Amino acid sequence: ITTDGNTLLGADDKAGIAEIMTAVEYLKNHREIEHGDVLIGFTPDEEIGRGADEFDVKNFGADFAYTMDGGKIGELEFENFNAARARIKIHGRNVHPGYGKDTMINASLIGAEFAMLLPPFETPSNTEKYEGFYHLCSIKGDVEECELTYILRDFDTDGLENRKNAINEAADCLRAKFGDIIDVEIHDEYRNMYEKLRDKMYIV
Questions:
Q1: Could you say which of 37, 48, 160, 194 would form a disulfide bridge with 154 (CB–CB 3.0 to 4.6 Å)?
Q2: Nearest Cα residue to 156 out of 192, 126, 118, 127
Q3: For the chain, what is the radius of gyration of the CA atoms?
Q4: Phi, psi of 87 (to 5 degrees)
């Protein structure tokens, strides 16, 4: 399964398409399985419950829908993390190392210090199930500039806000030590779809 070059299909997107078409094939070949009308639509939905906001369900003719994606057999998801992304830029000062005392500000060392200020066990390699985390996606830089990018995840809205606050508090801690050399940008990516739909759901 490939694209025409105007969009991107990741591995899970391809798996989702393959699942849908396999399910259609199976139902066509097993007429003994009783079912109502089955309507197939392809949308940029993902698990976040927002990609289909503009989808005209009434005109499409469906009463309810499932999003099929790459995952474990028999798995049914009705919720997801709240998500945000943070970018931290650190501006250092590069001077000749022979004259660096009380003058040089090594942005990369401060970047490493920033990472150590966040809870060390709240990372994807140490968390599971409903445990949120800070995920350091990248850190790059030199003496003059360093940039860290994080994704923040938490099932609870307040929990995500606490993680965003922790990013800002870590930056404030280093500003108190090194001066106003740190810029922080944080933006929300998506919300837990269960929070939006909980009053409309009946879960057995």
A1: 160
A2: 192
A3: 23
A4: -125, 125
The residue assigned the tokens 């049914």 is: 76
Strand order in the sheet with 82-91: 133-141, 145-154, 82-91, 182-190
Cα 131-133-134 angle, rounded to 5 deg: 175
Per-residue model confidence as pLDDT tens digits over 57-93: 788 888 877 776 656 777 777 788 899 999 999 999 9
DSSP assignments along 72-111, one per residue: -TT-------EEEEEEEEEE-B---GGG-TTT-B-HHHHH
CA pair distance 21, 60, nearest whole angstrom: 19
Residue 141 in tokens: 């830089």
Tokens in use for 199? 């009053």
Amino acid at 85: R
Residue 30 has what DSSP assignment? -
What DSSP letter does each residue of 128-145 carry, written as one string?
-TT--EEEEEEEEE-SSE
pTM above 0.70, yes or no: yes
